[in-house]
Specification:
By secondary structure, this protein is α+β, with helices and mostly antiparallel strands. The protein contains 13 helices and 12 strands. The strands form 3 sheets. Strands 3-2-1-11-10-9 form a 6-stranded antiparallel β-sheet, with helices on both faces. A 3-stranded antiparallel β-sheet has the order 4-8-5.
Length: 373
């Protein structure tokens, strides 16, 4: 084993064992060692999971303490990935969708327990009794499984002119998975409906509302909706693991993704997003606390894994908030450990079923827990 591989092996061992974190901090107090270890760790994971490129930002109290790019944003042109590289972020979009909805809630535009049919009367009749709270919590029962829809829902549409009505039609024929509020089941389609609600109440497109109320105030100039018609500086190409190795990923239809997973961003812009939650620039502290509180079912059962727009599953007993995103060609995560005020952002240009991007982010964050930074 060479020196580089030995460093990686030791670093991985130290960072993944709870009782080794303090040892790491005490034996190697300089930040340079930790940063070199992080680099080796990420490169090792990239080799393991065939990740072409990655951009990473690590923050403490909303301030970037380390950022780097690894591998290639474009394999064919050999363009290096940088912290400024833009990636599709998939379901990390849901953190913005939830925040946008809560901005309107703070303004008194709706009550969380209002039913969605009162605002969007054209929705399928069995979706209308679902409350906005249930949409935000993923307790609506609205089905996102398109595999079922392919066999049961019969409708005609033009692939070249796909509309939002078509998106709803994909699963509209399916009954709810359960009575709303009685179970938790992740529903991307539910968050798509929230995007429609935001447009209805604001009188703006989802893109316009996010730009006006979130992106521009925070200086997130490199974040926006998927758009293949415009030139996006530093845009990464997406890849999937195919039968013969890496292949170019298909382009995603912006109409299909919208508020479910339709954003493109950079590690540096998402660092600004993380920093905003230490302030009240976008949302009141009480609203943030509500979003980061566990959802509850009708019988008051606590949902341990989710709040409003943020996952809440602890990692090794440590409280955390965040979200992952997987969309053809890209995997991403933002994870914040709220007691330690450490956030890790990872954006990659790969889809690989073996890659657990959230675990990777948590493992990197764990390496900072024992640090006095």
């Amino acid at each position: 084993m060479g020196p580089k591989n030995l460093l990686t092996a030791l670093f991985v061992l130290q960072c993944t064992l709870n009782n080794s974190l303090t040892v790491l901090s005490q034996q190697h107090p300089d930040d340079d060692y930790l940063k070199r270890g992080i680099d080796s760790f990420i490169v090792h994971k990239m080799e393991t999971f065939q990740i072409p490129g990655a951009s990473v930002a690590i923050l403490k109290h909303g301030q970037i303490i380390y950022t780097n790019g690894y591998g290639f944003a474009n394999l064919e042109l050999r363009v290096p990935a940088k912290p400024e590289t833009s990636y599709l972020i998939g379901s990390v979009t849901k953190t913005f969708t939830a925040a946008a909805a809560m901005i309107l809630w703070e303004e008194g535009r709706f009550n969380l327990d209002d039913i969605i049919g009162d605002y969007l009367p054209h929705l399928p009749h069995h979706w209308k009794p679902v409350t906005i709270r249930q949409l935000l919590h993923h307790t609506s029962g609205i089905v996102t499984n398109l595999g079922k829809a392919d066999s049961l829902c019969k409708f005609n549409f033009d692939c070249d002119n796909y509309t939002r009505a078509n998106v709803i039609q994909e699963t509209a024929c399916l009954p709810l998975s359960f009575e709303p509020g009685t179970k938790w089941e992740y529903s991307g389609r539910g968050y798509y409906v929230l995007g429609m609600l935001i447009e209805k109440l604001s009188g703006k497109t989802f893109s316009e509302f996010l730009k006006e109320r979130i992106f521009t105030p925070l200086g997130m100039s490199e974040t926006g909706m998927i758009n293949y018609d415009i030139i996006v500086p530093n845009r990464a190409s997406g890849y999937v693991v195919g039968e013969y190795g890496l292949q170019n990923s298909p382009q995603m239809n912006p109409e299909v993704e919208l508020s479910d997973g339709g954003l493109i961003s950079t590690a540096l812009d998402l660092a600004k997003w993380d920093a905003s939650f230490y302030t009240e620039r976008i949302l009141k502290r009480s609203t943030i606390d509500l979003m980061w509180s566990n959802a509850r079912l009708k019988d008051n059962t606590i949902v341990s894994s989710y709040g409003i727009g943020f996952g809440l599953t602890p990692y090794k007993g440590h409280k955390r908030v965040g979200h992952t995103g997987d969309i053809p060609g890209f995997s991403s995560c933002i994870t914040r450990f709220t007691n330690q005020n450490i956030t890790v952002i990872i954006l990659t240009n790969i889809t690989n079923s073996r890659l657990n991007i959230g675990k990777l982010g948590n493992e990197i964050a764990a390496c900072y827990w024992a640090r006095k930074i």
